[in-house]
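Support request from a user on the community tier.

User writes: "When I paste my structure tokens into the form, the page sometimes reloads and wipes my input. The last time it worked, I copied everything first. Here is what I submitted, just in case something in the input itself triggers the reload:"
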């Protein structure tokens, strides 16, 4: 939404699933990799790294359903399946790359904030920890 736009619940409910899809870490990686051109399933899986076959299948199916990529089956033995970004998928590359650049520019600040938060949380937890009960320290 642009600044000054009012919150419209009906629009939010339409946009939420799209934001969920494109905000998923596997989606971002798949879209980035397919930005280099069409790719077979197993090549995509190797290049993504750390993704299960099931999760990659769910990711590419969702991207296909949303119109971000196409799945082409070639009638060979065994069948060959290629995935390729659609024009809509290519249009998603720019904001993903911008978001990645922003993350790289701000990673030090983010990590500093995380350390400060974790340190403060540990300090707060230690301050709230119950004191040992009398006689529990082994002395009578």
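"...and here is what came back when it finally went through:"
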């Amino acid at each position: 939404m642009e600044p000054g736009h009012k919150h419209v619940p009906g629009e939010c409910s339409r946009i939420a699933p799209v934001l969920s899809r494109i905000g998923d870490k596997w989606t971002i990686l798949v879209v980035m990799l397919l930005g280099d051109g069409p790719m077979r399933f197993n090549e995509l899986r190797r290049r993504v790294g750390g993704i299960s076959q099931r999760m990659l299948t769910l990711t590419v199916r969702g991207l296909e359903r949303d119109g971000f990529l196409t799945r082409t089956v070639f009638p060979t033995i065994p069948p060959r399946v290629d995935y390729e970004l659609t024009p809509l998928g290519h249009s998603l590359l720019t904001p993903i790359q911008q978001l990645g650049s922003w993350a790289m520019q701000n990673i030090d600040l983010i990590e500093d904030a995380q350390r400060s938060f974790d340190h403060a949380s540990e300090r707060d937890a230690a301050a709230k920890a119950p004191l040992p009960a009398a006689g529990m320290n082994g002395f009578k």
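Agent notes: The reload is a front-end session timeout and is unrelated to the input. The chain has a mean pLDDT of 87. The chain has five helices and three strands. Escalated to web team.
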